[in-house]
């Protein structure tokens, strides 16, 4: 699909929002204690290990066992969530707002 390792870990961070529903996926629960807030808590919760009431799928746990993915998880867990937005360009008029996200 053309995704880099960093893209895959960042995309997994989308689990910070929402929850799984058993009737749709076979899994039940939220990944974070506050699934209505977009922040880096998914990465923090993942690093802290299993917690009662929070969901960690095998694909989530695989991020920690992979020698390339784990340092990225640690990096995202350590930074202020809004510092992930390192550059923002705003085009005025008929142009679109473009946000480029990167870390490091």
Automatic annotation (TrEMBL):
Highest classification ranks of the organism: Eukaryota, Viridiplantae, Streptophyta, Embryophyta, Tracheophyta
PANTHER family to which the protein is assigned, alphabetical: L-ASCORBATE PEROXIDASE 1, CYTOSOLIC, THYLAKOID LUMENAL 29 KDA PROTEIN, CHLOROPLASTIC-RELATED
Keywords: Calcium, Hydrogen peroxide, Iron, Metal-binding, Oxidoreductase, Peroxidase, Potassium
Top-level taxon: Eukaryota
EC number: 1.11.1.11
Name of the molecule in the record: L-ascorbate peroxidase
Cofactor: heme b
InterPro entries: Ccp1-like (IPR044831), Haem_peroxidase (IPR002016), Haem_peroxidase_sf (IPR010255), Peroxidase_I (IPR002207), Peroxidases_heam-ligand_BS (IPR019793)
GO BP of this protein: cellular response to oxidative stress; hydrogen peroxide catabolic process
Keyword field contains Signal: no
Family: Belongs to the peroxidase family. Ascorbate peroxidase subfamily.
SUPFAM superfamilies assigned: Heme-dependent peroxidases
Enzyme class: oxidoreductase
Single Gene Ontology MF annotation: L-ascorbate peroxidase activity
Reactions mediated catalytically: L-ascorbate + H2O2 = L-dehydroascorbate + 2 H2O
UniProt keyword Calcium, yes or no: yes
One of the Pfam families matching this protein, by short name: peroxidase
UniProt-listed PROSITE patterns: PEROXIDASE_1
Organism: Zea mays (Maize)
């Amino acid at each position: 699909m053309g995704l880099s390792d960093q893209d895959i870990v960042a995309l997994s961070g989308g689990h910070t929002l929402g929850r799984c529903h058993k009737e749709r996926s076979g899994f039940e629960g939220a990944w974070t204690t506050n699934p209505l807030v977009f922040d880096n808590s998914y990465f923090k919760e993942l690093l802290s290990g299993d917690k009662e009431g929070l969901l960690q799928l095998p694909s989530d746990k695989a991020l920690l066992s992979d020698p390339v993915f784990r340092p990225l998880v640690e990096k995202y867990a350590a930074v202020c969530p809004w510092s992930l937005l390192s550059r923002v360009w705003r085009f005025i008029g008929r142009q679109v707002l473009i946000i480029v996200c990167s870390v490091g």
